[in-house]
# Entry
Amino acid sequence: MPDAVAILALLLSLPPLCMAWQPPPSGLVAQTVRWAMGISPHLNDREPGATEPEVGAIRRSWSGGKAELKSKHASTEVWVRPLFDGAIAVAAFNKGERPAQVDVVWKELGIAGQPQVRDALLGTDMGKVHAGFAVKLPAGGAALYRVLPASRGR
# Structure
């Protein structure tokens, strides 16, 4: 039978099971989004798995088209990449050293109507979005969305 002191030492060395969730550093998020969009070929030996299934799904659903820079304002960029099912991956980046608002404007991206939008990093639906939206990103941060054009329906 194991020694009680050894068991207690083992239990005390384990991380707590109820740790508060901490968002990953903005640089890691941006690197993950670049990988999903096909802008960066690798993720330093780390690929999204069970913790980021929608990000990995965007990477795997590539239609063969390359990611394209569609909008650049000061330190912010918006990239798009077609997906095989007719959806579009939209990535927003803040390359600055301060938080910044990134405006995602459908007209600038060549998207008509009110597409359905899903935040791939948070796993939340934004619903039908008219004209576009704005997202505030931390310095070096990024966001990733799956956009289903209005003509495709859902």
Remarks:
- Residues 25-152 form a domain with the Immunoglobulin-like fold (CATH 2.60.40.1180).
